Amino acid sequence: MSIQTESPEILLLIPAYNEEARIGPVLAEYAEYFRECYAGEFSIVVVLNGCEDNTLGVVQAAQKEHPEIRYLNYEEPIGKGGALIEGLHHFHEADYIGYVDADGATQPPAFHDLIKHRNEADCIIGSRWLPDSVIHQPQGSRRRFASRCFHVLVQGLFWMNIKDTQCGAKLIRKGAIEAVLSQLTLADMAFDINLLYALKKKNFTILEIPTEWTDKIGSKVVLGKTSLVMFLSVVRLRIIYSFFYKYIEFIMSPFSEWIYKRLAAPHRKFKGHES
Q1: How far apart are CA 193 and CA 172, in angstroms?
Q2: What does the domain layout of the chain look like in residue ranges?
Q3: Mean pLDDT in residue range 77-95
Q4: pLDDT value at residue 151
Q5: How confident is the model at residue 4, as a pLDDT?
Q6: Are 190 and 229 in contact (CB under 8 A)?
Q7: 271: burial class by Cβ within 10 Å (0-12, 13-18, 19+)?
Q8: Residue 101: which of 177, 41, 197, 189 has the closest Cα?
């Protein structure tokens, strides 16, 4: 069966920031695995987010070997969420759009599990906190503690009843993405909260399933700064969705812009190169 890269049924977004050492094998594993399972119906788009190393060269080399791969290259940092937002704006033609992290924490079979459940909900997400999840090389105690505190904060602010909003493995139906795309504005790592809450507000269904996941060495997460970014982002998101936001929007807009500039997560305004 020939490979159709123009209109695949499954499209996978991979945001990447300085991943030259890890992304090559990840792209090869995904392209080869899904070529067997979804020949002609699977495509990968890497969104490079202000990379300062040779990630672009590695992606271009992988593209020559695997025609399923495309990319967007942003010369300035736009944040993980910003990369995903840009990817969704440029590539949402597939029936289902998913995303995983560039470090390979979610292996192809684990993402395949999401696809197998695609007819059961509008959005399927992997969870590291469900009883049947398999975790290889768990996070350190500080990150686990911060993760659980963040979960309590999110649950208290949004009441979504989702055990793991931050696992980087999600799959969303095209119609659901198109319905909420204009509401996705958080360019940092709290993007997932923005996406899931927007889907909930529109009454789309979300299914959380156990996943297999590995905490990779060399994580880009800086615990203190990342925690601050995510705290400010979710509080801002809660305010945006509050009934009184329209009365304070003129105050929040410059404040939001200041936050994004200070935390290297700019708004959706950068122009990138597509291939």
Answers
A1: 14
A2: 10-267
A3: 89
A4: 85
A5: 35
A6: yes
A7: exposed
A8: 189
Residues 6 or more apart from 58 whose CB is under 8 A from it? 19, 20, 23, 24
Rounded to 5°, the CA angle 94-195-235 comes to 165
Are 96 and 111 within 8 A, CB to CB?
A: no
Q: Could you tell me the pTM of the whole model?
A: 0.86
In sequence order, which residues have a C-beta less than 8 Å from that of residue 4 and are 6 or more positions away?
40, 41
d(CA 120, CA 38): 19
Q: Which of 243, 106, 268 is nearest to 191 (CA)?
A: 268
Residue type for 177, please?
Answer: I
Across the strands, what pairs with 120? none
Does the domain spanning 10-267 belong to CATH 3.40.190.150?
no
Q: Identify the residue with better confidence: 126 or 247.
A: 126
Of how many residues is the chain composed?
A: 275
* Cβ–Cβ < 8 Å for 165, 193: yes
Paired residues of 11 in beta bridges: 43, 97
SS3 per-residue string spanning the chain = CCCCCCCCCEEEEEEECCCCCCHHHHHHHHHHHHHHHCCCCEEEEEEEECCCCCHHHHHHHHHHHCCCEEEEEECCCCHHHHHHHHHHHHCCCCCEEEEECCCCCCCHHHHHHHHHCCCCCCEEEEECCCCCCEEECCCCHHHHHHHHHHHHHHHHHHCCCCCCCCCCEEEEEHHHHHHHHHHCCCCCCCHHHHHHHHHHHCCCCEEEEECEEECCCCCCCCHHHHHHHHHHHHHHHHHHCCCCHHHHHHHHHHHHHHHHHHCCCCCCCCCCEEC
